[in-house]
Amino acid sequence: MTAIEASIPPLPPGEPDPSVADPQALLRGYLDYYRDTLLRKIDGLSEADLRGSRVPSGWSPLELVRHLTYVERRWLAWGFEAERVPDPWGDRGGDDRWRVPDGVPTADVIDAFRAQCDRSREIVREARLDAHARLGGRFPTEDEAPSLAWILFHLLQEYARHVGQLDVARELADGATGE
């Protein structure tokens, strides 16, 4: 191993292999990486830390998980597939803040996130990146219907931003940093 090779840090767990060149495989791989990272970031937090906020805007880690569940649903199920989705904005309260309804167990929020990610993977599995969203769901006209490539890039930036926010919330909660 050369000195340069030795100085390159190892890839974080679950990140796609650097040899992957297929854009769809990279997008799917990085989305799964961020989905997994999100779950790793909340693992080990107390119920109080999952439901409490440490940031001025007031969101909690559990609210963020629920928000990303709805983001996946809005963009892929309702958006790309034009599926009928009850209450696509159900992650928000009347004040437009993310919410987890009172009495909803943490495990239910996490299970719903995992199930929605599974549904998203199913939608994307055979679809082409240049395919456009079906009409009739989130997008009523062809002019508004984005390509799957655009949607996946949008989801990727949502995850990158929100997992970064969760990094800060986790460090403030218990000092944990990194993966």
UniProtKB/TrEMBL annotation:
Membrane-crossing segments per the record: none
Sequence segments annotated as region (Disordered): 1-22
Domain of life of the organism encoding this protein: Bacteria
SUPFAM superfamilies: DinB/YfiT-like putative metalloenzymes (SSF109854)
Pfam families, A to Z: MST
InterPro entries per UniProt: DinB/YfiT-like (IPR034660), MST-like (IPR007061)
Stated name of the protein: DinB family protein
